[in-house]
Amino acid sequence: MTTETDPTVVIPVFHEKTDTKRLSKPLPQKPLSLITIDDSSRNHFLRLVNAWLVDLNIPVKPWSAVLFNIFITMCEKAMNNSIEQKNKTIWIQTLTNNSPTESKFLHNVFHGKQLTNEEFSIDFPIGGTIRIYGLNDEAISGKLMDLVQAIVYLTYSLYLESYVMRDSQVQLIISPPPPPPTTTTTTTNSFQKEKATTKLNLNFDQHPSITKRSSGLFNWLKKLNPNNTITRPPSPSIEGETKKRSNPLTIKRGLSLNNISKWYQQPPPPPQNDLDCIQPNDPHRFFKLKQKIQNAVISTSPECHFPYPALLNRLEVEEDDLILEQKKINSMHNEYDCPTPSTSRPAQQRRRSSLISSFSSLKRASITTTDIQLPQSITAYSSIRVPSLLADSKKGLEHLNLDTTSLSSFKHHQSITLGFTVYPIGCPDRPCLGPIMSKIDYFRYHAPQNTTTIFPNIDQTLGHMIRHWSQSSQSPCQAHMDGQVQFIPGLLVETPLPLSNSRPELVTETPKSSDSSLLTLTSSFYVPKRQCGKFHGCNQPLLDHIYSFSHGIGRVTVYSSMDQTCSPADKDKVKTWLSCSTCDKVTTAVVLNERTDQFSFAKYLELIFYSSKLSSPRPFCQHTKNSNKDIIIRCFHYNGITFKLVYEDAKYYELRVPRIQMAPTETIVPGTQFEAPRMSIATLKGWKHKSTTQDVDLFFESVRAHLDLLNHYTKAEARRKLRGLQQDAAATKKCQAESKSLDGEIKTLSKRLDTDHQFLLQTLADTNINELNDFRRHFAIQSESIIQYLTEWQSTKCGEVSDTIEWDSPDYIRMKSIHCFPGSSVLVREDEPTSIIAYTLSSNDYMQAILHDDMGTEFSDSGSIPSLSSTEGSTTEPVVQPVDKKQLPQQSPDIIDGYYSSIERKYVSPSTGASTETASFRTMVIEVVKSSVVEAQIHNVKRLEDLKVRLSPWTKKQQEEGDLKRQKLTERTLKPLVAIQELEHQETKEVKVASFFYENNTVKDPTKNNISPHIKHKFVHEGIEFTCIVYYAKEFETLRKQCDINQLIVQSLSRCQSWTASGGKSKSHFYKTQDDRLVIKEMMNAWNVAEKDAFLKFAPKYFEHMKRSSTEPSVLAKIFGFFTIRMKNTLDKKAPLLNLDVMVMEHLFYNQNIIKRFDFKGIQDRQVEEFRKQQKDTTLWDGDWINEYRTRLSVHEQSKAVLEFAISNDTEFLSKCNIMDYSLLVGIDQDKYEMTVGIVG
């Protein structure tokens, strides 16, 4: 990386007093053909060494300058050496005397201890001793020995890389040091400076994007920040990558050893480590992690720009989305508040939304902490919803090596894992070899020379690899397969893990992955030792094959061809040149330099993948003026065979586990709050807003329109009558009086309607958002009363008018199959079975049962309709005669509407599982009764007793438990609307009888059995009885909270539709929620084993596994509940209308554009018929994947590691539970380049 991208790296400049006599003559220029370490390599060396010194806690000053001088000396001596030296070993000698600044490299002198590094094949052209002075600290002495070994390796790599750049037609930038301030050389130096500047300007014309380099420390700093502002460097992505270095120029002047030493005596400041302490709960954590990666120093090569891992890119997008959604929620949370003129608060008293600081290019905003929570529709599908507690392993971060500056991290990254494939020309889907993953360590040339492998997966020199390919080009492909199979070290075979209970063996040495960043190349994930037959081979010569090396988000493809045009003089010589892929123009072929020949082939591939320096040669055509690695073809020729290395971008898919994941229990607030919203606040407010605008407002608008129609009619009718009575004064006067009276009645009625409109709006505003059904029932009764009154008034006053009020009433009023049960906001729809579940989970009765489990206390009923004036009766219970349980509630003629419900739990025998006596119950009867006031006074007591009798079919057994039963009578008089107040001879009352019974848990009765974990909820309306049994109610409630969908599931289940699932052979019927989030599977009996009973036995183990998955990734499609739902007509003794055992699961492919689906069973010969493959939404099988898609869809190694770990955990769990019938579903989203994977039963 050049100094332009890192303002923290400062090249020290030091001017020493110089003897003017020695500099009376200008220094001779070195020949331009001499290769010298260029500016970017020097700066990169300083950047690495500074980071290592800080990491090892060694003082940057003076050791940075000391080690830099040794580096420059070694490079200069190696490049100027023309005599073959016998002893090429490097020694190190440490002395305690003198100053560290006197440390040096002594050429051809051997003292101290020899540096031996058996891991690397370093053939340095010279030998000598690195003498270190002033080492008085033993702690620093040991660290410095390790550091010097790394510096020798770095020096060797940069030394060879300089020759690679020359042979690749890359021009190097070498800036001279500032001239000494002497009077005798002013003219000469000025002339040379002017000459150099002229030469520089000529190159600027050829490369307009180049910024002129000025000498001197001040100008260099000024150039880095000309506007004195801090700018955020752009992301170093492959697509649209911003090049961070200037295009190279011709070498201006060589640097003598003395001048170099004086130039770099002041150490640069240490690198910035502000990003090392990124907190897990930082709202901008992943943005900062990407910044940290951007400043990574993990490669020996300067200007290598590694793209960010796809995982971090996705997590940063999620991070930004959460911030924007939080800002949106905070600014709009009052939008759906229902306005009422009488109660609206002044603007200055309204709660203000919390604001977030504006975004800028310098610093991103932080989320302002508010009590306005993001909806679960967003958080449940976010990988970072609980960043401080949600395990990094579930996001895959533990598989990324985010240490980007330490010496150990640098050593760890001196390798690369390549995906290697060999296939015949034109048959990329039928590879002869691979795809295999091979980890290669740079500069470790330990492969046997006589190997017959196509690719020995141990590093070779660049020249050796070209010669090896050429020599084996005419032999059949099959002849090399045996040697490739036997050459196992470092080989990782890309084979899908079997869906079994065996966990792969862990490998202690971790390879680099093929993810989109070298930061993931040596992460801490395990790699299974596995092999399979991926060495097929064929009878065609290797010359007719194509080699493919993939890494990150790119691929290098090697094409070979015969070319006999070279002269005999070039025999046994490797020649190289560049070619343009667009216009086929080529550069002059040159013989590969001896040092380039020795360069690591694996390291050369890294340069092709990521080096912007290598991808910017001298322009040799109009297409190569701009740096573009896709345009450049790198050609090599040896003994009649030409090899062309072509880079191309590759698309990799990220493997995604199911979106909804378990969070640790620490994130769950213990207990349940009765008042807490049972669905998204935004949804409930939206429903409340809809009741205002589409129900109440629209109703009164329709009534007013009808009154206007009647008003126009009465006036027109009066004028018609007056025209016929012109001769009869008495009749005319009477007609005018009647017309005036009707007009007054209509105006009065209109005013009363305005008052009633405001009253209902006020009633709605005061209604609890969890109990909107209570208002809906109230509104249904009131609207019906108004319509009935106006209809009667119209028939009396305007009998000739046949028009009725045209009102598009809400579906819960218009349709008898939709029910507004009290204590909830969910409508029960007979044709949508999941709405029965949604109502139960959101009802007051269910919440009170759950609360009793959490707190062990009794709860009284909450109030119902707030517009009722209530008078509570005595809580003492009159004597009630037992009623046969088969007797069903019969609705009397004076009842307008009635709702009946019960919820109970049983004791369960631990041995047999049979239900015994009731452990707890709650029952409720709500009836709206219209009767005369006289009848109400006479028959009030009898009616209340009748209600209790009607309640007894559910509570007969509890009638005998007098001391443990509680009953509460509530009678509320419905306040009549102003528009119909003259009907004073009648009143409407809501009568409510509630009973509740709980076992006294404080008294331990050894005779009692365990309380059932299941809750049975029964509710009746309009002669339809609904039943919902919630199995493992408390356990599933906790699981839904940990998945952050306890509100979302109610909202989703409130609406559903039938759904036909393809791919499986199950005969089960499926439903899918209308928002596409959940799948509901009907349980069926198979192989004479009841799935329902099997699941009830399996559930406790499932809950335990889900608890463990809160810290580990899992691919199990989450089960969010198991229910029995029934529906029957109370007057019909025949079979029930509905009887289902259903399982509610997450929809794996929610909110994704899935173009292909696969159902894997582990049977490779399992394939779909050809005619079905052409059909839309066909689910393919194992054999289809292996034969047609396996080699097309490459994946990131990091996400693959997470998936393998998750599958291993889940299949081991399923195996222990003796569950075999499950599948691995895979969906391909081509828009997001993701593959979602999940195990379903």
From TrEMBL:
Compositionally biased residues, Polar residues: 861-878
Annotated CDD domains: PIPKc_PIKfyve
InterPro entries: PIKfyve_PIPKc, PInositol-4-P-4/5-kinase_C_sf, PInositol-4-P-4/5-kinase_core, PInositol-4-P-5-kinase_N
SUPFAM superfamilies assigned to the protein according to its UniProt record, in alphabetical order: SAICAR synthase-like
Pfam families: PIP5K
GO MF, one example: ATP binding
Entry GO terms, CC: endosome membrane; fungal-type vacuole membrane
Range of residues in the leader sequence: none
Protein name: PIPK domain-containing protein
Ranges for region Disordered: 333-352, 861-894
Keywords linked to the UniProt accession: ATP-binding, Kinase, Nucleotide-binding, Transferase
Gene Ontology BP term (one): phosphatidylinositol phosphate biosynthetic process
